[in-house]
Amino acid sequence: MELKPGRFFLIRVPSGSELxxxxxxxxxxxxxxxxxxxxxxxxxxxxxxxxxxxxxxxxTIDVNEFTEVxxxxxxxxxxxxxxxxxxxxxxxxxxxxxxxGHLIEGEVFxxxxxxxxxxxxxxxxxxxxxxxxxxxx
Amino acid sequence: MELKPGRFFLIRVPSGSELxxxxxxxxxxxxxxxxxxxxxxxxxxxxxxxxxxxxxxxxTIDVNEFTEVxxxxxxxxxxxxxxxxxxxxxxxxxxxxxxxGHLIEGEVFxxxxxxxxxxxxxxxxxxxxxxxxxxxx
Amino acid sequence: MELKPGRFFLIRVPSGSELxxxxxxxxxxxxxxxxxxxxxxxxxxxxxxxxxxxxxxxxTIDVNEFTEVxxxxxxxxxxxxxxxxxxxxxxxxxxxxxxxGHLIEGEVFxxxxxxxxxxxxxxxxxxxxxxxxxxxx
Lengths: 137, 137, 137
Description:
Three copies of one chain form a homotrimer.
Chain A: E1 2-13, H1 19-30, E2 35-52, E3 57-63, E4 67-79, E5 82-92, E6 98-119, E7 126-128, E8 131-133
Antiparallel strand pairs in A: 1-6, 2-3, 2-4, 2-6, 4-5, 5-6, 7-8
């Protein structure tokens, strides 16, 4: 799907925010219905997921420690008219070792995010099996 | 090299595709000769490489398991007039541990990719030692 | 903060360069005061940091081996009128295992970087506790 760049935002996420809900609120407040984003920073704790294809559900991994957010990136689309934030993340521990996957939630210490709005078309996720996916073209 | 943004695409890659050849085919079909891309998703299996400077070749690592694609990013340039896809990838295993490097191939379960075409100049890779590289400026 | 895209650059970083100072020099030479960047490549060695919240300082990890730069991304802002490069990095070792965090320095073997300049506003970091941060909005 071809889209056009809309507005561009650089945002520092306040300490203590939960990242996914914060980006969702940004999308709602700024009226972004489609977009992509990237971020770096650090988390006080996080929850990540690994998709279990046979079960059709995510295995959850709790990261109960301070980590560097090496990167997270993802996209803003919609499910049933509401913004949906899909992000994956790589986290670095104190010894530099990495843990990562689908980002379920992250408690922000410091996060710097850049968001590119995309205009000229909607991007709706529709249920396919146990996942909400974009249409294939 | 200064370039200008061209078209922008958000694409869901069909399950079962091999990712690098799929992006190459996108570049050919859409007529993208220079571009950059990012993606998240999951792979059923993958093959990554680690460059051995002394040997001048890649050591290959087979990832024969389902992984979350934490991120992959790269660029579209050309070698001998044909699109060349250079991508690196970080993969997350079931326990959240990460494996990554140069992406040789990945069998897609689900991948969401965004591609920014760049116009106003070609980007040709030329052989230097054992690698195909962009010119230094 | 809403900004507008300015110029866009694709740059191959010369072998042997220290990456952070190279990007800083690019920002100075090209007159980029705000921007974002992404890169892939490989390092001959690197130094990464993990922020110790209680100490208010970075623990340093020396990566004294050749690694694939799986990705690094970050932003260009300023401290006291001088460009400041904030980047995080994920590195892949010979066995594919990953190490990552805040990028302090990296000795380039090959790096391909893309830089998006952002215009229409300054982005100044101001000291908050022991860190230099963007203003909250």
